[in-house]
Structure prediction request, 656 residues.
Amino acid sequence: VQVRPLHRIGIVGLGLIGGSLARRLAPTADVVGYARDPSIRAAAAAAGIQTTDSLQDATAGRDTVVLATPLPALDDILPTVASTVDAAVLTDVTSVKLPVLQAVRRLPSSVRYVGGHPMAGTEHSGFAAGSADLFDGAVWVLCLEPDTDLSAWLQLAALYTSIGCRVVPCPADEHDAALARVSALPHVLACALAAAGDGGGSLALRLAAGSFRDGTRVAATRPELIAALCDGNRWALAEVLDETVDRLRAAAAALRSGGTVAELVAEGHDGRAHWQAMVDASAAVSTRSTVDRPAAALRAMLLALGAAGGYVEQVGADGQLHMRTPGH
Amino acid sequence: VQVRPLHRIGIVGLGLIGGSLARRLAPTADVVGYARDPSIRAAAAAAGIQTTDSLQDATAGRDTVVLATPLPALDDILPTVASTVDAAVLTDVTSVKLPVLQAVRRLPSSVRYVGGHPMAGTEHSGFAAGSADLFDGAVWVLCLEPDTDLSAWLQLAALYTSIGCRVVPCPADEHDAALARVSALPHVLACALAAAGDGGGSLALRLAAGSFRDGTRVAATRPELIAALCDGNRWALAEVLDETVDRLRAAAAALRSGGTVAELVAEGHDGRAHWQAMVDASAAVSTRSTVDRPAAALRAMLLALGAAGGYVEQVGADGQLHMRTPGH
Prediction:
């Protein structure tokens, strides 16, 4: 296994994510950014980014192609991209990974695709909302399937850790199941809470304080973005919605029978504490491994790392993987 | 209707709310604070508050008695308090109002009780967590029932607006129904979300970002406080839990049938926007009214004000009520 650095990077789409990545990489790499909209290209050029109005110029002759368009646009451009990427590592940044993986599997098998998803965003979108430091310390998922090219995976891990990201390896289906719980569900519950508060009329909204404000914050996100996030991950989200309905029905039944919501509260309090322990970086344990080992063993180690809540923080020039796992 | 100022104030319980109110009022009024725990009395005395270890000293001879103990303790002390308050205005600060009203109605009918609930709190509790500015700009509900003494209500409204609070009039049952929606429900949903995230294991918690962090924030509150908040408002909470279950089941069904969550998202987005418009004080409309008008008309006007999301912001020495209503 070799980890050659990636230097010639094509970025397709210069919105919040693509634009921020282009800003971050342009000072140290040969970056070409593609955007259909001339005003976005002009804004990117003004920020010192080389741009093109030809999709092919951003894909042919590159060693890395990052697709940073929304999911629906991906379907349109994938065939064109696949026919021009040559030997480049192809990756994307969309928030659901199984549909993209399935679309890529319909392309010629020579395409070296690794699904990606940076956990960085704001409620804003577009090139202007981005910045070079958007990914500082952010988690960046890189999907690892049984047929993923390990060299391509390690090259992207090296690229993203070099800009300060924490690279989490996991299969696409596990990514989608996890995101249904920690991203789609929070948005659905924020909307359900905002709707319930609104149902109480002006008096209820006047009496709303911090718990309502924070619990409904993401309901202010652009509706089409929330719907895309949820509808694109429909099976996993429907499952965790069922689970949540069961919890709420049990709580309502307990209240009606003179009981208490204490059981759900204890479960939730523990869950929040587990998350807090996870983000408390001071408790993380450092581990290392060389990439020079059998591919099956390396793959298994990376998947175990991701499943344990760990991440790669550096891919050394000496072929050393620097990793961290939660220390609880 | 006369609005004589309240000057001799007894505060029973010096926790976060009672302690903060004592700090705020002590410089300008004759305040006596009661706490059972000697260490709390010592802390309050060190903050310049006159304290007593006798419940009766904090109630007899006062013109205002504020019960700032938790709900379970209220039941114990109400009979003693009722037999010593004389002509004082009696109020409380607990977060559910119907159970307290029912307990007070079992007392001699000469007690001039007005239920109160300041919408100010933190995830912390106890005297040390309080401060004199806790209530700056906060909403303070004062309950208005058909049999509430209007003079007592106006006197308390004058007292609380004088320290910067926005006094919202509403009946106890409507308070509790509203709070189930905007306070108990956010806590239950935060717990359900934290439990669902935790159910996804370490990978899910690692991938959790801002929407999960904010959506679960109040799940970190002390579990017994959340349970008390919810169990104490069981009927109203059970009802809005049913409503929420219906919303989530409809969303899951839509997803499974190839549809979209867009309907719920639109409802939630609108709800959050309505709340945002409510807290956007710049859009509020100022109105005035004299308290010198028939009691029935004054009562009806105040209830209409609260139902519209409005509040009293000042009770003038000239008998003028200064009010604000949302301007959307």
